[in-house]
């Protein structure tokens, strides 16, 4: 395996599978299986998951709700996904611990960096829920922050697209995929990998991001083995 400690960022929307809302059990099982593959080979795995399949902060704003209020609702949505993922991992024999950025002591440990690292060392997958615990931050920012804190070697951003393209492949048939691109080029060309807060955290802390298609079974293992899958963004 190329990497020993990774942070996997999963989008909430991906968990929907073909459904219009919520969690698709088949997709959940499929993700758990892919995570188990790398877990079984001894990779230390931390996970941040979004909540967009359940609730999005922007949706709240459109309805006239206060942005911060909506953001907190979004953080709670990530906890629902995190608990589903924990159950999915447990059912395939993967030990895990869930830590929340907002205290919910009946259902989750609080986020304690040193404890999270200890869990990883003991062979437990650590799921970080509730984003950063602050409004105005995305789960991508939570992923960058936690990855830096636990000294992960890389963020693996599992999405539905298979990498970073020269332009939107759904609109431009001539778009081509990058195997590798620098942070500066992503910025200079106006490409989108993560929001700017998350992106800047990664750049300034020299943390590479690999964008890859998590919905193709076996891809996660390939990425961790160092195979050319998706796009690597780095300094
Ligand atoms: P070590 O003792 O370091 O090996 O870690 P451990 O996680 O096995 O021990 P601990 O006794 O802390 O945790 C046992 C179980 O309780 C685990 O499933 C934890 O996730 C859970 N747990 C620990 N702290 C809390 C908490 O504050 N709230 C909740 N809800 N669960 C917790």
Tell me what you see in this structure:
The chain is an alpha/beta fold and 235 residues long. The chain has a single domain, classed as Carbamate kinase (3-Layer(aba) Sandwich), CATH 3.40.1160. Helices cover 40% and strands 18% of the residues. The protein contains nine helices and nine strands. 43% of the residues are buried. Bound molecules: guanosine-5'-triphosphate.
Key descriptive features of the protein:
nine-stranded mixed beta sheet; 18% strand; single chain; alpha/beta; binds guanosine-5'-triphosphate; 235 residues; Carbamate kinase; globular
CATH superfamily membership = Acetylglutamate kinase-like
Order of the strands making up the biggest sheet: 4-3-5-2-1-6-8-9-7
Low-pLDDT sequence parts: none
Helical run tally: 9
The helix-strand sequence is EHHEHHEEHEHEEHHEHE
Number of strands: 9
Instruction: Name the average pLDDT.
Output: 96
Listed once per kind, the bound small molecules are: guanosine-5'-triphosphate
What is the radius of gyration?
17 Å
Percentage beta strand: 15-25%
Tell me the CATH architecture: 3-Layer(aba) Sandwich
How far the N terminus sits from the C terminus, by CA atoms, comes to 22 Å
Largest sheet: 9 strands, mixed
Shape: globular
Number of domains: 1
- CATH-defined topology: Carbamate kinase
